Amino acid sequence: MNIDTGIWLLGPGTCRMSELASYSRAGSKAPLVEKFDTLKEIGVTSFSFLSESIRQEMLLEATGLPYTRRTRERPTGVFQKVYESHRLPLDGILMRFALQYTLKLLASLPPLKPEEYFSTELRPNDLCVQKYDESSFGIRTDADGQSDMNLVSLFILGGEADFFIFDNREGANPRQIDTTPGNAILMRANGFCGHTNTPIHRVSNVRSERYVLSVRQKV
Description:
Blueprint: H1 36-42, E1 44-48, H2 52-63, E2 68-74, E3 77-85, H3 93-107, E4 126-132, E5 139-142, E6 151-158, E7 162-166, E8 175-177, E9 183-188, E10 200-204, E11 210-216
Antiparallel strand pairs: 1-9, 2-3, 3-4, 4-11, 5-10, 6-9, 6-11, 7-8, 7-10
């Protein structure tokens, strides 16, 4: 779902910006922008973000969405099989959360000199939920393309899987990223501090049905 034009049109039922704190776990008070230095260094950061009650409510809504199966291919073959839903209810908790997260992120940028991090204005405009079946192969070792700009924000709603980043597509220097349900995972994307794509990564060993809310900036 493209949220670029609707982000400022907060209709009935949309929570106020100050209420974003109610989504977050105790101990996750550090400003989001403090994570950007980690992104400059290794490209990915994962941290506890959603309260358990909110995570469960978001997961419940996600399990009831209509999904379309997508198969992504590279010249080397299929690298991802996933179910996606862009049809989020406008008054649902997933949409409300995504809008308020985006507003909070944008509001926190001015002291940073955003031009030092982003090649274009940071304006997330793509929202979807991805679902992986238990025992699916997840995502083969690869990087997201240049259509993803600046920053990718992922929120783990449920399920268990392994997430690794590497120095190259041959799998050198594997580093595991925490995918605990309730965590937020931020990844740099095309245009972040001169980089042209996300870190090379892989999702594997999907041990239970997995749901992830994705907030991106697409071109």
